[in-house]
Write a structure and sequence with these properties.
The structure holds three protein chains of three kinds.
Chain A: H1 2-13, E1 15-17, H2 25-28, E2 33-36, E3 41-45, E4 51-55, E5 59-61, H3 67-76, E6 83-88, H4 97-105, E7 116-120, E8 129-133, H5 142-146, E9 152-154, E10 160-162, H6 172-176, E11 182-184, E12 213-215, H7 220-223, H8 230-234, E13 240-244, E14 249-252, E15 258-260, H9 261-267, E16 283-286
Parallel strand pairs in A: 6-16
Antiparallel strand pairs in A: 1-5, 2-3, 3-4, 6-13, 7-8, 9-10, 11-12, 13-14, 14-15
Chain B: H1 2-23, H2 29-32, H3 42-55, H4 57-60, H5 81-84, H6 88-97, H7 111-122, E1 138-147, E2 152-160, E3 166-168, E4 173-179, E5 184-191, E6 197-201, E7 214-220, E8 224-225, E9 229-234, H8 260-290
Parallel strand pairs in B: 1-8
Antiparallel strand pairs in B: 1-2, 2-3, 2-6, 4-5, 4-7, 7-9
Chain C: H1 7-21, H2 23-26, H3 30-56, H4 71-83, H5 85-95, H6 102-126, H7 135-138, H8 145-165, H9 168-178, H10 185-194, H11 202-235, H12 247-273, H13 282-313, H14 316-326, H15 331-348, H16 357-384, H17 404-427, H18 433-439
Helix pairs in contact in C: 3-17, 4-6, 4-12, 4-16, 5-6, 5-11, 6-8, 6-12, 6-17, 8-11, 9-10, 11-12, 12-13, 12-16, 13-15, 15-16
Classes of the chains: A alpha+beta, B alpha+beta, C mainly alpha.
């Protein structure tokens, strides 16, 4: 009985770890599940999907908002921010570290991609290249236009988010998205039993739920802690720049270099995907000129016809 | 079956062998023998270091600190034997054409600059004189204040000398940057004068947040161990209006911001139809009433 | 209208009409029971499939992240299309005072009710979280075409039911008064309640006419909306093949074709099964045939616009989609639908011979099947060709093929629709008796007379 109460208590509050802990606080800062093992030890599932066992004395309750508070602040967004991503196509090697980090963070099955590294070729004789494709977080999002229940919505900080506690699974947004950015939980999500009973975090869309939509959300839970999205910091090749358009700065996830967003996209002639559709994406691409790695994929059939 | 086991064993033994071979990166002899056209000078080594910091450090880590990115195979440290056993020609060749996770820098770094990076790597070669020495950072102190009227930052820097006393730092670069969400954006640097002082003029084009505030970070180069001075909420620049994304009347918005015309036409049409249906139902009631007449 | 003078003659004729048209109601035979057994069995199997789907997730279907709408949605569009015939036959043509359509209008309403009801059910079956259906009412977003669609589907269903019910009231009174012991007690009770104590006085008839007129006018905008809004589910997206400005009228025209064919088939079944040769006459089939040619030509016109115009330009994504339809994976289905659902019927039905009951019914069956294929072609191929390549996903994400669960649920929808039509025809006359009698010159006053026997 005692165990159960503590477990519930931990579940709702989340945990953070003391300075003397075996684990760094960064590992635990965004974890939201604990499970009692025995008297003094406790099992903790981190945001990265690792199951670790720590001493109970190292844990102290941290502020973890209740579901309704989380949903409310998740709908408002992070005040004053306007997130943008810049993807440097000349740097991508198809290492897929971004895809792995993303799938671990967001509890995705191997075939579910919030971010997908595509092999592209724009026309018959042009050079093929790798293109990481997250959700474009459009400023005129076709997906939120069609949602019948406000389950997907645009926030003031630019992120298009999903509330999978409300989603009815009609999949209209999948049909509407020209970037194929959305995935559906056709089955029970990955590690469903591990995540059972965890309070839903709208900003990570974890735990995932069967019969609802998921998609890239710029790791909004990490942004709230002033951390870069998982894909951005996982990249070994400096492909991603991420930052706030309002303060005109983007930071490279690999080198941690910070530059002016406006200069970066101006100097490199950045473009957005399918701008002719008028969706006004928030993800900017730097052209795949002077690529750092040779293309080693199958020369893709342009458009996969 | 026997054959298959054979094959299996072969694969078992050959595979690791291939991996070893794979790590052996053979450079064609003619490339290996090329000598560095760039002179081995302090200037070139320094330039090479700057290039290394931007292009190579993210994987190979800081020289001598053994902190590379955990890739397979692990990118060797600059000071390691694995790195230093290469000839200058080998190094140049490898960084130019790349392999696996190693980018082909011939597309992004000029020939001269690639040779300068080679010079930087050679700085750690036991057969060469080390031009650029890694000294342990000197303890230093930094004082900074902001003059909001003329838009300058006044800095005073001093360091701890061998006797443990602090004395002014002369002719040392001080770096000024803006604090942003995920990192610091460098604005520029200035050199301290003979009094250990320096004034940095904030560029007029600087744009702050909604209230016109910026946070300026003043720091010394990595040769000195000094706490950065963070000048918070300095009002030295133009304010910038933060555009409101969620506005009234966009069709993608939530119901709270639904375009009025859409709501009115929806309610009008649906309401009209259901009023008419209600009227028909009323007629049905009337039919019932009439049957009592 | 030939007025019959003699009261005796009128009574005799009315008795005959009543007897003919209620034969299906009073008849109790093995075949009917077997028919209902078959229908219920398929409905049960389909519902079982749905329970499996709810339990295991939509993954039991062939749908995946790229083709995320499959035959459920194709089926939904098909049913909405078929339902539109209620609006055409029992309202638009009535208002145009086209008299031959009167005996057909109740058949059209039966089909409309069954089809639109099933369309609503299929949408729920397609949802990933049917348990959250209430969210649509709690959090409904007025800018979403799905909310519009749900609104018009419910409105149209309500109007269709009313349009079925109001002209039925005088008939219900007839059934109540005349059937006596031929049907079970509960059935009489139902008639009695539903007939609202109908006396047949002029005021009541006037109210019936008035209410019908209001409904007939009301159903025109609602009927047009239901299919236009359904087309907007596709046309409001940016996807190649759906991003079309003529989808509304294109869908409406296609709906008339499918619905007319469905009505012809049901008419023929009633004619043969219930011996209504003198009621669904050759002339009705002849006229329906002409109507089918007319709406098919209209549909052909929209088809030409829908395929020729983008085919002329062959924009990149659009071009891939069209070549896939014209000569790719979907070519057999596409050309089957166009040739057997449009070209050949138009040509054949120009000849009087093919407008005879049996030939036209066979043609209609082809038209109806083609109409279903056409909906499949509208929904699925577009999704198989998104703008960006499909990569890093299992093979079954690339191409859609319905699974057995989907087919079970699809069969459920067909049999459930037929079940609704069967129940309606088993409980109520398939032709409005009083209207038909009036047509034959029988005065209204004879309707309210209770026969002596």
């Amino acid at each position: 009985m005692e165990k159960k109460t503590r477990r519930d208590f931990m579940k709702t509050l989340g945990v953070s770890i003391g300075a003397t802990g075996v684990l760094t606080s960064s590992l635990l800062s965004s974890c939201n599940r604990v499970e009692a093992v025995s008297g003094d030890k406790i099992k903790v599932l981190t945001a990265g999907g690792q199951l670790v066992e720590v001493d109970i004395s190292q844990l102290k309750p941290a502020e973890f908002p209740s579901l309704s508070e989380n949903q409310e602040r998740g709908r408002k967004g992070i005040p004053g921010k306007s997130w943008v991503m810049v993807i440097d196509l000349s740097k991508c090697r198809n290492a897929r570290e971004c895809m792995k980090a993303c799938q671990d963070h967001h509890q995705l099955r191997p075939e579910q991609h919030h971010i997908n590294v595509l092999q592209m070729q724009d026309a018959e004789h042009t050079a093929p290249y790798y293109m990481p494709k997250p959700c474009q977080h459009c400023d005129d999002p076709p997906c939120t236009k069609v949602c019948p229940v406000n389950a997907t919505f645009k926030r003031d900080d630019g992120i298009v988010l999903i509330d999978n506690e409300r989603c009815i699974g009609c999949r209209f947004c999948i049909a509407a998205c020209p970037y194929s950015a959305r995935v559906f939980n056709w089955f029970e999500p990955r590690d469903a039993e591990k995540y059972e009973g965890v309070t839903y975090n709208i900003e990570a869309n974890v735990p995932q739920k069967k019969g609802t939509i998921s998609k890239c959300l710029f790791s909004a839970d990490l942004l709230r802690e002033d951390k870069l999205p998982s894909c951005v910091s996982a990249c070994p090749n400096g492909v991603y720049w991420f930052g706030d358009r309002n303060e005109d700065a983007v930071t490279n996830g690999t080198t941690k270099e910070t530059v002016r967003f406006s200069e970066l996209i101006k100097d490199n002639a950045a473009y957005t995907l399918m701008e002719e559709l008028g969706t006004k994406p928030r993800v900017f691409y730097l052209p795949p000129k002077d690529r750092a790695f040779p293309f080693e994929g199958d020369a893709p059939d342009h458009h996969d016809a | 079956m026997y054959k298959r086991i054979n094959l299996f064993i072969a694969v078992l033994f050959v595979l690791p062998a291939f991996q070893v071979i794979g790590q052996d990166w053979v450079v064609p002899a003619e490339n290996s023998a090329i000598e560095n056209p760039q002179e081995y000078t302090l200037k070139n080594v320094k330039l090479g270091k700057d290039l290394y910091m931007v292009n190579c450090k993210s994987c190979h880590g800081d020289p001598g600190k053994n902190n590379p990115l955990p890739l397979v195979p692990v990118p060797p440290d600059v000071v390691s034997d694995q790195m230093q056993s290469n000839s200058v020609g080998d190094l140049y060749y490898k960084m130019s054409i790349g392999k696996g996770a190693m980018p082909q820098f011939e597309t992004t770094i000029s020939e001269d600059n690639r040779w300068r990076i080679v010079n930087f790597i050679m700085n750690y070669n036991s057969n060469r004189k080390q031009l650029l020495e890694d000294k342990p950072p000197v303890k230093a102190q930094l004082l900074a204040s902001i003059n909001e009227d003329d838009g300058t930052v006044n800095v005073f820097a001093e360091y701890e000398d061998k006797g443990g006393d602090y004395s002014k730092l002369v002719d040392v670069p001080v770096i000024f940057s803006l604090k942003k969400t995920f990192g610091n954006l460098e604005l520029g640097e200035c050199i301290t004068n003979e009094n250990g002082r320096s004034d940095f003029i904030i560029p007029g084009s600087l744009i702050g947040n909604e209230e016109g505030f910026v946070t300026i970070v003043v720091s010394l180069g990595e040769d000195y161990e000094a706490k950065d001075v963070i000048l918070e909420n300095a009002k030295i620049c133009m304010s910038k209006e933060v555009p409101k994304l969620i506005r009234q009347g966009v069709i993608w918005s939530t119901n709270d911001n639904l375009p009025m015309w859409l709501l009115l036409s929806y309610i009008g049409m649906v309401g009209g139809a259901w009023l008419a249906i209600g009227y028909v139902v009323f007629q049905i009631i009337k039919i019932r009433k009439y049957s009592k007449e | 209208m030939n007025k019959i003078e003699s009261p005796e003659e009128s009574r005799k004729l009315l008795d005959k009409i009543f007897k003919d048209l209620t034969r299906s109601i009073v008849k109790k035979d093995e075949l009917t029971r077997f028919w209902f057994f078959i229908l219920l069995m398929f409905i049960g199997v389909g519902l079982w499939g749905w329970i499996i789907q709810v339990d295991r997730g939509l993954g039991v279907t062939g749908m995946r992240d790229y083709v995320s709408w499959g035959i459920y949605i194709a089926n939904f569009v098909f049913f909405v299309a078929v339902s539109l015939i209620g609006f055409l036959l029992s309202s638009a043509m009535h208002l145009l005072k086209i008299d031959w359509v009167k005996p057909v209008s109740r058949v059209a309403e039966q089909i409309a009710i069954a089809a639109v009801g099933l369309a609503g059910i299929i949408i729920v079956m397609d949802m990933g979280r049917p348990d959250r259906l209430l969210n649509v009412f709690l959090h409904g977003r007025f800018a979403s075409p799905i909310v519009w669609d749900l609104t018009v589907v419910t409105t149209y269903l309500t109007i269709s039911v009313l349009l079925f019910y109001i002209p039925l009231i005088p008939d219900l009174a007839l059934l109540r008064d005349r059937l006596g012991s031929q049907v079970p007690k509960w059935q009489l009770k139902v008639y009695s309640i539903l007939s609202l104590g109908w006396k047949g006085n002029p005021k009541q008839f006037k109210t019936v006419y008035h209410a019908m007129r209001v409904l007939m006018i009301l159903i025109i905008p609602v009927g047009l909306s239901i299919h236009t809004v359904t087309s907007w589910l596709f046309a409001s997206t940016l996807r190649a093949g759906w991003d079309s400005t003529i989808f509304g009228p294109y869908f409406v025209a296609g709906a008339f074709v499918a619905g007319t064919a469905a009505v012809i088939i049901v008419m023929y079944v009633y004619r043969v099964r219930h011996g209504l040769k003198d009621y669904f006459e050759d002339k009705h089939f002849n006229q329906m045939g002409k109507l089918l040619v007319f709406v098919s030509l209209l549909y052909l016109y929209f088809n030409v616009n829908e395929f020729l115009v983008p085919g002329y330009k062959m924009k990149l994504a659009e071009g891939i989609h069209l070549s896939n339809l014209f000569a790719g994976d979907y070519a057999p289905m596409f050309w089957f639908a166009q040739i057997f659902g449009l070209f050949i019927p138009i040509i054949l039905l120009l000849f009087k011979f093919f407008r005879k009951p049996l030939p036209i019914t066979i043609i209609s069956a082809f038209v109806l099947v083609s109409a279903w294929f056409k909906r499949y072609i509208i929904v699925i191929p577009t999704e198989e060709h998104p703008f960006l390549p499909i990569q890093n996903v299992p093979e079954n994400f690339h191409h859609y093929a319905p699974t057995s669960i989907e087919i079970m649920i699809m069969l459920f929808s067909f049999f459930a629709a037929i079940f609704i039509i069967s129940v309606l025809s088993k409980l109520f006359p398939v032709i409005t008796i009083w209207e038909y009698a009036e047509e034959k010159g029988i005065d209204k006053k004879y309707l309210s007379e209770t026969p002596k026997n």
